[in-house]
Design brief:
Rossmann fold, binds magnesium ion, binds adenosine-5'-triphosphate, 6-stranded mixed beta sheet, alpha/beta, globular, 3 domains
Length: 520
Amino acid sequence: MIIPVIGDSNVSTGALMVPLVEALDISKQFYGIKALSNVFVQIYPGEVLAIIGENGAGKSTLMKILAGVHQPDTGQVRINGTEVNLYSPSVAMNHGISLIHQELNLADNLTIADNLFLGRELLWAGPLKLLDRKAMFNLGAKYLARVGLDVDPGVLVGTLPPGQKQLVEIARSLSLNGRVLIMDEPTSSLSQKESDQLVKVIKELSSEGVSVVYISHRLGEVKRVAHRVVGLRDGRNAGTLATHEISHDSMVRMMVGRDLEKFSKPLALGQSSKVRLELQQFKFLGGTPSGVSFQLKAGEIVGMAGLVGAGRTELAETLFGIRPSQGGKSFLDGDNYTPRSPVDAIAAGLLLVPEDRRHHGLILLQSIKQNLSLPNLKNLSRFFLVDPFKESKLSSDSIKSLGIKTTNGNKLAGLLSGGNQQKIVLAKWLAVGPKVLILDEPTRGVDVGSKAEIYELIRHLAGLGVAILMISSDMEEIIRLSQRVLVLHEGHLQGELSGDDINEESVMLLATGSKEVNIK
Ligand SMILES: Nc1ncnc2c1ncn2[C@@H]1O[C@H](COP(=O)(O)OP(=O)(O)OP(=O)(O)O)[C@@H](O)[C@H]1O
Ligand SMILES: [Mg+2]
């Protein structure tokens, strides 16, 4: 067992050094796979504790144990020094621990106030059990104010952007007397502004004595928000960092167990002059009437930046034939290209790896092998029957080349960790051999190590002559990978940056609608 050394300076409430929650010697297996082995973690009152680790390291499993979703095979959980049996989420909640899932658990068709008080509605005094809407609105407004959300409690949750939904979830946990809020990748689908707001709220809550456990692959954010960082590696404790020890490199070392190679910009790529995709005033739903015009050349990695809602996903989905084009011209390898469905797009050689992989990219209830085979059935079949040998080979080759963490290809895709699911989505399309590949947020929810692998893969594909359009909200990713960056703003192309002109400031300026970007 690793006992972290905790200095007084780590926690804002330095005087109270009694842990509120302790997970001691926790082990957990799923069908023979060890997700956690003898893990130890303590949570102090008012601290922001980050848990980091590669995909599949066991972070979510540990948090689900603290939140009463899973029970440990061995080990114990203590609250204020007393052992507790968290056999269900409501028991954990009664102890003040609540888990805010990445897939938020709000009812879109109810108001904010209804969501806040779902299952424990406030009633008028008297025998009729009438709902006291006014009381719920008033109290609701107080909790919303605590998370800095200035929205009427009568608004339907479905109309809120993701960042505000996240804040409603937090308000709900607070209204349940939450003392420990666990956030599993809370910012992975938030815009930069929304993430900043969340970080601000977390800091405020912590100064009020609420403990926040924060799981994220965005190390910059972890550094900004965490008082202490606990690392997990392969289901075991990998170390603890005190506030003054937290840096990008120390976190990477703890997670990966080694230093990652420093990243250099691609140089030789993108030399080809062969135009793969050309759009001339291409119009799409959500875009401006004049449309967008640009070219993608063979071997190029072109980043597409923009704020949430700028129309990036809509453009990608139109190019992939999911949404009908609204006019303008498009050519693929010089031929007219107007896909009416993804089947047309795939046949022409344009592929989209979608943003929301859980809904569009993978069949979670099928095995890894079946998922990989699906778009490749033509190559895998003989006389209309899938050749089991070829199918297994594709699966084992992909697992090996992409470093997918699984015991074998027969495991259900839905049981893999987020990053590993993403690699399968990529692998399944790669085997098809695309001409143009559109990646929508390719490394969302992916750990640093896997990110590097996915970047390698993207560059490898570019090297093979594929034209790559990479939509990303991760500025570091855009800057590191792109040779050119197209910036969308409110449905039109606000500007283009290339080479040394690609930097955070210029991208942000264009993304927020400025035309005044200083290009050297
Ligand atoms: N319900 C389950 N059934 C079977 N295996 C599971 C289940 N939940 C998790 N696992 C396995 O346990 C291991 C740890 O998974 P976990 O989801 O805790 O990782 P993680 O650190 O949260 O990863 P990520 O960063 O990708 O979210 C993985 O190998 C995963 O496949
Ligand atoms: Mg997880």
